[in-house]
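Lecture notes, structural biology module. Today: joint structure prediction for complexes of two components.
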Amino acid sequence: MDTAVSVLNVTKNYGDVEALRDLSLDFPRGQLTSLLGPSGCGKTTLLKIIAGLLEPTAGNIEIDGKQITGPGEDRAFVFQDFALLPWANVLRNVSFGLELRGVAKSEREAIAEKYINNVGLTGFEKSYPHELSGGMRQRVGLARALSVDSKVLLLDEPFSAVDEQNRRKFQEDMLELVRNENKTFIFVTHSIEEAVYVSDQIAILLPRPSRVSEIIRPKGFRSAGVENIRRSKEYLDIVDQIWASLRNYVE
Amino acid sequence: MNRSLFLKLLSAFIVFGTWELAGRIPVSYAFPTFFESMQALFAMTMDGSIFVAYAETLKPLTLGVAISAVSGIGLGLWIGLSSRFEWLFSPIFIVMQAAPLAALIPILVMAYGIGLTSKVFVVCIMAMPVIVLNTASAVRNTPTSIKDMGRSFLATDRDVILKIIIPAASPVIFSGLRLGISAGFIGAILSELKITPTGVGDIITYSRSIADYPSMYAAIFSIIVLAVLFLNGLERVENYLFEGNNRGYVSD
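The predicted structure, tokenised, for the full assembly:
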């Protein structure tokens, strides 16, 4: 298996609290891996360490075999609360990543325009975030992450602040994105159904301190087409299986 | 006619109407009516004395406000960005804000004389604390997620400050500027009343001493008008610079 991102023996302590202990995990290239676990299991901490936003206490992260030292061009982040600039319109928000990389204005706006179109926000270029719905805001966040064209996309519970119908649409779009874009996706979620629906590989994290308890790779239903996934027996079995192993940790 | 303009005119009408009524009763011998005051203002405008007065008053006012705005925002940024300087500087500005300024003026005069320097100091003491304290707390309260966003998209420290922290803090910085500048106007007049009577302060002192109350109130009225105009201009600047930050709390 071709590995794009490796987490090698990562430990993270906050003072006396051990958030992650000696955690190792591989993320296959071109696929979507979810980090799933109860709240407080350190999945967001792990994602931020991969992003280079947090320093691990021990261990390291390798991307294509090279150790990371901080945020890099090879990774882009999608935030749970969207993290849009309220004073900037959609076009500037989407092109902000490119702006920080020093891409010239006309060029970055042309690229941003393309991704605004891809996520279905054409016509909203001049709108401000507070004029958009939650789902549309996250589309802006997604377009911003796509426009910098990183090899790895890190998504931190991206759809948890989005309403149910928009979330389902997003999940379908994710499958298409994984198929069309040649990127590695690392996806944090607390929703079992969501993880099983969108993932090629699911890593179950258990808390205090966090470790990988299980890795599940769904096989059969991915080819069945988006509308049949939720009916397939394998999908339902995996959801049940994950719930059985997580239920003891939910208080 | 839009609703907010209508409400503004209505509120002006109520205030000036009450003023006129109170002057006609009269509530005090020393309280002129609105129209008498406006006549006095008109007379001062025609003979040019009000412009001469403002030429004098605007010196400490603009200097003090400019110094307070620039160094206040700068200092506030510095305090807000570093955790160590908060306890070093914040107490100074909290004391400045609470100090009974009129009682401190004699000390300023002893130290800096009766000239422009003392007056500029008074304006700064009035204007600066709220600007510094607002800026510092706004900077410290920048949402972590947009700072993280900047860093994850490879912002340098300079980018994070210029493109994220300052715009994010701008509504609170501007509200500090509004409060600080209003206080600066008060400080400018206070300094002209307490240090040496010049400019608008001179009109107020002199017309009071000869019982020309309409002129005295005309001078007070004119400084309020100037302050309101200035603050409206400031809001326009804010709206222009940070359009999306305006979610209706900034008036038009």
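Point to remember: The helical segments of chain A are 43-51, 90-100, 105-118, 134-147, 164-180, 192-198, 233-246.
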